[in-house]
């Protein structure tokens, strides 16, 4: 499978659909990212970013770059920082798959939540900005932005558990008993629908944010592929889940780190600050949402592993390394569920 970009075809398309993007175009694929290949476009008229579906046979509803384009365009005039959307092309004949082009946002991207590149006294303000931006996402007016139909109605966690169970079964490459047990527990312990329905990012974590070059401010929230309307606590639990991971290059977590000594927030501080900003008293059954996010990540990474084995992963070597974490997430989800 080739992930190279046909810049000649892109230039021809741009002449009609996006005149601001003047050729010649030099395309550089961003490293990392396991779903939708993303490219920096350097042109005489400036720098842009192109994000596309991967070529090849894809799971139904996966790699929905058209949805990414829609939600970010809808958020243009809200408190949620997103790049400016420029054009969407759903004609697969242009470069081989659906794609969209957006403005390039200058900013700092941090892969590790321990923030080793940042002085300890400057870490807490970045985490605070991350928290504030999550609240902004969950405060979006769905009516005003035209996103009331962005996700189906009904019980979000139940719907998502059903969907990702199906995706997991479709991409399974081995039997994982703890994953089966976790799925059974989630269905057996599903909390009642409490009526909360907000915009949900679906993969909210530090490395999907761009921070301003010179300030503790989120300049752009990226990677909206899993976004929908649903229960906000799933996003909050995703942050806590990420922090529980090993503090390694692949784990990208905070396990074993003395957070106070390193200027980092505790789980409870992040949760309490979020609740204060949303004016809610606290969260019941948070362990369910945490178990749910472990389950969903296990299902996502199983899909990443399957794409690598099938030869259509964006970064095959890294995909296999990430895929090896599926049993870990299943185990951790079951542990979160039963503690």
TrEMBL record:
GO terms for molecular function: transferase activity. InterPro entries: ACAD10-like (IPR052898), ACAD10_11_N (IPR041726), Aminoglycoside_PTrfase (IPR002575), Kinase-like_dom_sf (IPR011009). The keyword Protease does not apply. Residues 27-250 form the Aminoglycoside phosphotransferase domain. It holds the Pfam family APH. It comes from the Bacteria. Keywords: Transferase. This is Aminoglycoside phosphotransferase. It comes from Roseovarius atlanticus.
